[in-house]
User: Fold this.
Amino acid sequence: MDKVAANIVKLLGTVDENALTKSLLIKHARDASQAALFNHASMAHNNHLFFRYISPTPVPVPQALLDQIIIDFSSLDSLRTEFLATANAMFGPGFVWLVKQSSSSSLRILATYIAGSPYPGAHCRAQPVDMATTNTGVHGQMSPEEYARSRTTQSLAGAVGTAGSFGPLSRNARAMAPGGVAVEPILCVNTWEHVWLRDWGVDGKRKFLEAWWEKINWDVVDANAGFLGQKQFSSRPIRQNWQMPR
Assistant:
């Protein structure tokens, strides 16, 4: 995380100096020339959430959240079984999330690899041309700035003489790819090996996940899900001096 923090510090003096990590990762997710910035911002954001949902002492599941879990997973035990199985089966580093659909209260499990983000705004990519033959600015002679200007010019030219309420330049333009679903993360676990390998050993991933489950701060999960009607918890990190039981 020191390396992640060091790279984000490089934003000092830029337009992104005061941006939150969530804003940074969504802003730069589709810019190949800013892939490193996206990775560092997304990793920082994901880890902030990972630590935010942990409590040094057991916290019971609030009734409203438990009711929704029963609706979507039949029981808390079923959610635990499916969530931990998904995390344990991940072949490679990443995060496993419990997400809430923005348009409803439905809960779902989502897995993202490496520094992947659960936010749909970081997923969809406008790709009206063949990227195998079009210069993106990452390879070739066109700079990222020139490529961005050319895309803007093409978009404006294509809008001439069109009508409707849902075009790419309209107020109601899609913010997500077709078929995308808006979700908000309310819980996550980090499955990167450096999180568990040193303390739990090569074969200890499952034991780490089981110990993590017992330390979930369900009050924070509930508040982020909105079932308490409270403001969502900040994604900024907190420090607590405690260790998971082995």
Notes: The first strand starts at residue 94 and ends at 101.
